[in-house]
């Protein structure tokens, strides 16, 4: 299948490609200031429970509202923050903000679990479990309300330390989810060794699954694999009613995607939830 999926190899210039570019240096300075100046914000994308139709889960996705560049997507600064080591500060900010929001929802009677994305660098950082412990305590949030999304590739750099961090997070009662499932290497070997609660099928298989029978086979097999291992299975990238219906037929547990809702600011999410649960 690899050949079929390889893209045309179009080169896209990114400031992070060039270690010494002035753009890269200024981006670093701006990213540092962004946190202090409150230019970062979290949006939340709902995940629909395909059995009950209800929404009790949302994923936090960081947004940078830059005064000049406008909305900078995370793909353009997360990898950069990882390379420079700034991700540690950024992730702490994300966790703090997401837990505060989770606590605020709970206080308002809105029972939402929140997923947080962490990167490879976070996993080899021995402080991560401590950071979670301190912030869970600060916001009086139960660990089982929080899902930590990690990609398989994040485990590859330093599998031993990454696994130690994951074990510590698991032991604290946090929920673990493998993101972009199916796109990394040796998925099965890792899955066997890791204690996780959920796999999230990568959107590259989900988006066109009703058009491409290979994609549908991959999605169907992944759902069966997850269930046989006792895991919850989520699908991201649900862009059509057809895909949503198909996932329900295939017994997938959760669906997330633009067809249901884009990531929203907290106010927008509240309004969306009221409408969703009204009918
Ligand atoms: P991800 O964790 O795989 O998140 C899913 C991405 O797919 C999000 O892009 C989301 O907006 C987008 N998406 C959701 N539904 C659909 C759909 O139906 N179709 C399509 N085509 N896309 C959909 P976003 O927000 O731009 O984030 C991109 C990536 O940046 C994330 O991928 C994640 O790896 C990273 N990221 C985002 N926020 C954070 C964060 O707070 N911390 C870290 N470490 N990484 C983050
Ligand atoms: Ca994710
Ligand atoms: Ca994903
Ligand atoms: Ca991704």
Automatic annotation (TrEMBL):
Sequence ranges assigned to domain EAL in this UniProt record: 24-277
Source species, domain of life: Bacteria
Full protein name: EAL domain-containing protein
Gene source species: Pararobbsia silviterrae
């Amino acid at each position: 299948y690899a050949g079929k999926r390889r893209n045309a190899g179009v080169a896209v210039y990114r400031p992070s490609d060039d270690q010494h570019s002035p753009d890269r240096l200024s981006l670093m300075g701006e990213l540092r200031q962004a946190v202090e100046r409150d230019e970062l914000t979290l949006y939340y994308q709902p995940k629909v429970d395909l059995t009950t139709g209800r929404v009790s889960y949302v994923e936090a996705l960081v947004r940078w509202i830059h005064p000049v560049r406008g909305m900078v997507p995370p793909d353009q600064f997360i990898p950069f923050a990882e390379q420079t080591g700034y991700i540690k500060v950024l992730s702490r900010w994300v966790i703090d903000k997401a837990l505060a929001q989770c606590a605020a929802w709970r206080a308002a009677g809105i029972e939402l679990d929140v997923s947080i994305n962490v990167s490879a660098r976070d996993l080899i950082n021995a402080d991560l479990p401590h950071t979670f412990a301190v912030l869970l305590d600060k916001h009086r949030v139960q660990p089982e309300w929080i899902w930590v999304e990690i990609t398989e590739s994040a485990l590859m750099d330093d599998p031993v330390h990454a696994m130690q961090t994951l074990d510590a997070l698991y032991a604290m009662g946090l929920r673990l989810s493998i993101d972009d499932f199916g796109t990394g290497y040796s998925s099965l070997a890792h899955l066997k060794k890791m204690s996780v609660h959920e796999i999230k099928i990568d959107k590259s298989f989900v988006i066109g699954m009703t058009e491409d029978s290979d994609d549908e086979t991959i999605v169907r097999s992944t759902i069966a694999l997850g269930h046989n291992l006792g895991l919850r299975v989520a699908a991201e990238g649900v862009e059509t009613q057809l895909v949503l219906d198909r996932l329900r037929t295939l017994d997938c547990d959760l669906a997330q995607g633009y067809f249901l809702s884009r990531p929203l600011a907290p106010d927008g999410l509240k309004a969306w939830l009221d409408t969703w649960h009204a009918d």
